[in-house]
Amino acid sequence: MRIDLNDLTILLISGRFSSDERGGTAHIGNIRGQVLRTLENITGLPASEGYTRHDVVRTTCYLRDIERDYDVFNEVRTAFYRKHGLDPLPASTDIEATLSRPKLLVEIEAIAILGSK
Asked: In which region does residue 27 sit, left (phi positive, over 0), alpha (psi from -120 to 50) or beta (all else)?
């Protein structure tokens, strides 16, 4: 969802996950692969609007099994953000939840704030 407020645009990015080009679940059973693909999918939307990963200011991250997967999830997420020069990192809340597809290990929603261009 896109909200335009004068010279500011807010993108509310619904839950994204590790999907392939045809919409199927990618990296089944692989938390590292799913986190990386999900982050790439999340940051692709602002890029399609003409903005960058740096515009993502907040994420809510849903993990199927937070006790088992959190450390790897956080390691991959932090490395991804640092690789792309995000400093500070986006604010984040991490929650254990039942996800929208049975083979998903992670799902992420985001907020991007875009200044006037």
From this structure: left
Cβ partners under 8 Å of residue 68, min gap 6 = none
Please give the residue range of the domain that contains residue 34. 2-115
pTM: 0.90
- Give the domain CATH number at 42: 3.30.1330.40
Query: What SS3 class is residue 25?
Result: strand
- Residue given tokens 């006790």 in the structure block: 67
- Per the structure, the count of domains in the chain is 1
Q: What pLDDT does residue 45 have?
A: 74
Residue ranges of alpha helices (H) inside 23-102 are 31-48, 66-83
